[in-house]
């Protein structure tokens, strides 16, 4: 399995920033990721940080 560059705490921090209203472009620029990576993280880790699952995730 490929080792990730970011630990789960960094990913959770980025997702929480987005929830508090920080612009997505700003978050991605600071972390050095593209928006697609952010959305993949949101899909994979969003439920883990306390977000309620959407209808398609249930």
UniProtKB/TrEMBL annotation:
InterPro entries per the UniProt record, alphabetical: Homeodomain-like_sf (IPR009057), Transposase_8 (IPR002514), Transposase_8_domain (IPR052546)
A GO term, aspect molecular function: DNA binding
GO biological process, one term: DNA transposition
Domain of life: Bacteria
Record family assignment: Belongs to the transposase 8 family.
PANTHER family for the chain: LOW CALCIUM RESPONSE LOCUS PROTEIN S (PTHR33609), TRANSPOSASE (PTHR33609:SF1)
Protein name: Transposase
């Amino acid at each position: 399995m490929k080792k990730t560059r970011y630990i789960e705490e960094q990913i959770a921090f980025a997702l929480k920033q987005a929830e508090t209203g920080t612009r997505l472009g700003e978050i991605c620029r600071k972390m050095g990721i593209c928006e697609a990576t952010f959305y993949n993280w949101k899909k994979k880790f969003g439920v883990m940080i306390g977000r309620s699952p959407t209808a398609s995730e249930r």
